[in-house]
UniProtKB/TrEMBL annotation:
Membrane topology: Multi-pass membrane protein
Any one GO MF annotation of this record: transmembrane transporter activity
Subcellular location field: Membrane
Keywords: Membrane, Transmembrane, Transmembrane helix, Transport
Cellular component terms (Gene Ontology): membrane
Protein name as catalogued: MFS transporter
Regions crossing the membrane: 12-36, 48-68, 80-97, 103-121, 141-162, 182-200, 241-259, 302-322, 334-354, 360-379, 391-412, 424-444
Natural source organism: Mesoflavibacter zeaxanthinifaciens subsp. sabulilitoris
Length: 457
């Protein structure tokens, strides 16, 4: 099928739902560890509590990709039914997670939240490849990254923003602050609204041969066998991109799960107080705990705001690439390599950062994030069968979730422990991992993946 080139606003509309998805991911990534710590988790327990996120992605994304390839609804099309289901479930989970009364409840909500986000997210990746010709793939994924950057920055700043309007940062022991509750409620509303916007403003191409599509759909299929066959026939470029993805997502999972304990302790010098270290029956001891806890909550707001800066710099990075890729080709390989190495330097700089200079670390990390969200998918989509785009994108997600599972099961604690007991060592591990990911781009040799020749109008 000859796909029509789309204008900026058409690409913007089809990607706008990612604003809500990123609100969900940014609130989850920036504040779930804070919620876990408030409910009593130690910093060594946090990575394992996060295992819900990658495990649900490992299971959900290939299934959703496989099913969406075989779906056609006369009104909602192929991908949009999954946008809608995921948005409704994610919004409900976002609203309720800050009201968790115990650690196990919060961990359970993370399972529900991440599974629901994944139901929406994978079809959005596939939609770009469905709708755009090869010459606009980089452009499309970069516009998507621009929207993700906006969502990351706003959502990461929400607790700080609402605190400026007088919402309290103080709370009793084991209770989530009102700033976090209000921020997650706003996120739930934005998630649903932005996905609905894409559903109502974007159409999809129907199958070229509807009768053949229905015949194939009616045939018995073996999901496990089909997934296994697709994994076995994985293109070489996809495998090489998988190596890059492994080290990239190991680094970012480390940041999401451990940046709050690492930076509140090392940069702001306000670690989460341990309740058992205080005699809560003694009024002076209780006051000391409350003071330390409020300081931790306020510095956690500032860590969240600093993390939001990586969304802002990824947005600026994406904006520059949007203007450039709308008219010219880029060397995706070297853009991705340079961006990842800069992000790695940002993580390493956290060892010497102050509250005033922490933002510069996240500016560099934003270049890596902007590239991670666009370049691998642009390279991949130019190297696979378009009829299998959904399932391939789902399988590609394995290279994202497997390193996170390894990190959660003790990989972060073990490797950072080799450097010492300080929580900041986890950020050093993230930096080294991201530099390795950047250098692995030298493995990519497929010219069609590296840069695609712009088609003539």
């Amino acid at each position: 099928m000859k796909k029509q080139k789309l204008g900026f606003w058409e690409i913007w509309n089809m990607s706008f739902g990612f604003l809500g998805i990123q609100f969900g991911f940014a609130l989850q990534g920036g504040f779930m560890s804070r919620i876990f710590q408030t409910l009593g988790a130690s910093k060594d327990e946090i990575p394992l509590l996060w295992i819900a996120a990658p495990l649900t992605g490992l299971i959900v994304q290939p299934i959703v990709g496989y099913l969406s390839d075989k779906t056609w609804h006369p009104k909602l099309g192929r991908r949009r039914p999954y946008f809608l289901i995921g948005a409704i479930l994610s919004s409900l989970a976002l609203f309720f997670v800050p009201y968790s009364p115990a650690l196990w409840v919060a961990a359970g909500f993370l399972w529900v939240l991440d599974a629901s986000i994944n139901v929406s997210m994978e079809p959005f990746r596939a939609l770009v490849a469905d709708k755009l010709p090869n010459s606009q793939r980089s452009y499309g994924f970069v516009v998507q990254t621009l929207i993700i950057g906006i969502g990351t920055w706003i959502a990461s700043n929400l607790p700080w923003m609402v605190s400026q309007f007088g919402v309290s940062d103080s709370a009793d022991s084991g209770v989530i602050t009102d700033t976090v509750k209000v921020a997650f409620a706003i996120g739930a509303f934005v998630f649903l609204l932005s996905v609905l916007y894409t559903i109502f403003t974007t159409s999809e191409y129907p199958p070229e041969d509807m009768e053949e599509f229905e015949r194939e759909k009616a045939q018995k299929s073996n999901f496990i066998k089909d997934i296994t066959n697709n994994i076995g026939s994985m293109p070489t470029t996809m495998k090489k991109l998988g190596v890059i993805q492994f080290f990239s997502w190991f680094a970012f999972f480390t940041m999401w799960s451990l940046a709050n304990p690492a930076l509140t302790e090392h940069v702001f010098h306000t670690p989460a107080p341990i309740e058992t270290a205080f005699d809560m029956a003694d009024s002076a001891q209780k006051l000391a705990f409350d003071t330390a806890n409020t300081a931790f909550q306020k510095s956690s707001n500032l860590v969240g705001s600093a993390m939001g800066i990586y969304g802002l710099s990824s947005m600026a990075f994406a904006l520059l690439l949007t203007f450039y890729t709308s008219k010219r080709r880029i060397n995706r390989k070297f853009v991705h390599m340079g961006s990842l190495i800069l992000g790695g330097i940002g993580f390493l700089m956290m060892n010497i950062a102050t509250p005033e200079t922490l933002k510069y670390c996240f500016i560099l990390i934003g270049f890596a994030w902007g590239s991670i969200l666009s370049m691998p998918y642009a390279m991949l989509s130019s190297s696979v069968d378009p009829k299998k785009m959904g399932v391939i994108m789902g399988i590609f997600n394995m290279f994202i979730v497997i390193p996170q599972i390894i990190a959660a099961l003790g990989g972060i604690n073990f490797i950072s422990g080799l450097l010492g007991e300080e929580a900041i060592n986890a950020m050093t591990v993230a930096g080294i991992s991201l530099v390795i990911a950047g250098l692995c781009n030298l493995l990519i040799t497929n010219k069609n993946a590296i840069t695609y020749q712009i088609e003539e109008n």
